[in-house]
Amino acid sequence: MRTLVATVMTNHKGNEIYCWNRKVNSKDSQILRSTDRSVLEQRGFTFINFISPEYPNIAGYAIFFEGHLDEMSRDLKAMP
What we know:
The chain is of the alpha+beta class.
């Protein structure tokens, strides 16, 4: 099962704006924001880039977890 964790868009200043799944708690979101992308990918997260044929300057991606949110939360807590 693949679960949507968040969508992320980059604004014109280069800052990432996160839109979290409402079931992701604040502690998990802090861990996800501070952890390197390659580490998250090894832990079962998938990152899918957004593209738009109408708007070529769109920059963003979606974050998915290959499993349920409760499994994700346990996995994040077990990270060193």
